[in-house]
Amino acid sequence: MTATDVLPRLTDRKREAIVQAAIAEFREGGFAGTSMDRVASAAGVSKRTVYNHFPSKDELFSAILDQLWNRSQALPETSHDAGRPLRPQLLELIGGKMQLFNDPSFMDLSRVVMAEMLHTPGRAKAMAERLSSREEGLPAWIRAAQQAGRLRADADPLYAAHLLMGQLKTHAFWPQLILGLPALDEAQQAQVLADAVDMFLGFYSRG
To answer: CB 18: neighbour CB atoms within 10 A?
Structure first.
């Protein structure tokens, strides 16, 4: 292994250490209460190193938002299959989201972002617009199922996706995020998934 191989890895490790330290600091003190000095200290790097990676606190927070988005989109893609029943396809698709809600690191990221959204309405609007503009996955699947004549054509795919995911989040995301309740066990997860999909298909399916 050469020095040119080691340097990028060391740089990546430092960047990740900075991001993880920032997550902890933002969660504890919020955006306003977090300083780059504190992040540098928590990450075990110099302040200059932090600024080399992230020229401002806004860019550091943006990196956290990107990490949250990337985690939420890192699940295997499930394209609509016209030859398979809708129910098992939907269970697979939103089942991946359910697994994500049980990931402690994902929940930590979500708490950091949620806290900042609550404290700074302007930033909250910008973050919401940024995330919604990149929304795909489930809406794309619904759109394809509509084009295949299997779901109601008059439904807005994004709206329908929000309705379906809202049922999951009501039981498996918001209580854990806000109230600190434990993650659902496997039986509870299976029940929520099945009930959410059955209600969705009962309303939107064309039979």
So the answer is: 24
Neighbouring CB atoms inside 10 A of 85's CB total 10
Q: Which two tokens stand for residue 197?
A: 């999909």
Whether residue 129 is predicted with pLDDT greater than 90 in this model: the reply is: no
Which residues does 36 contact at the CB level (< 8 Å), separation at least 6?
47, 50, 51, 57, 60
Query: Which residue carries 């609550």 as its tokens?
Result: 118
Instruction: Report residue 96 as tokens.
Output: 């991946």
Gyration radius (Cα) of the chain, Å: 20
pLDDT score, position 46: 94
How crowded is residue 17: how many other Cβ atoms within 10 Å of its Cβ? 18
Tokens linked to 114: 């949620």
Long-range contacts of 142-147 (CB under 8 A, 24+ apart): 142/204, 144/79, 144/80, 145/80, 145/86
| Angle made by CA atoms 23, 175, 19, in degrees to the nearest 5 | 10
CB 134 within 8 A of CB 158: no
Distance CA 43, CA 16 (A): 9
Tokens encoding 149 = 């004549």
Question: Which of 39, 12, 45 lies closest to 27, judged by CA?
Answer: 39
Reported as a pLDDT band with limits 50, 70 and 90, residue 132 is: low
Please tell me what DSSP assigns to residue 151: B
For 148, phi then psi, to 5°, come to -85, 0
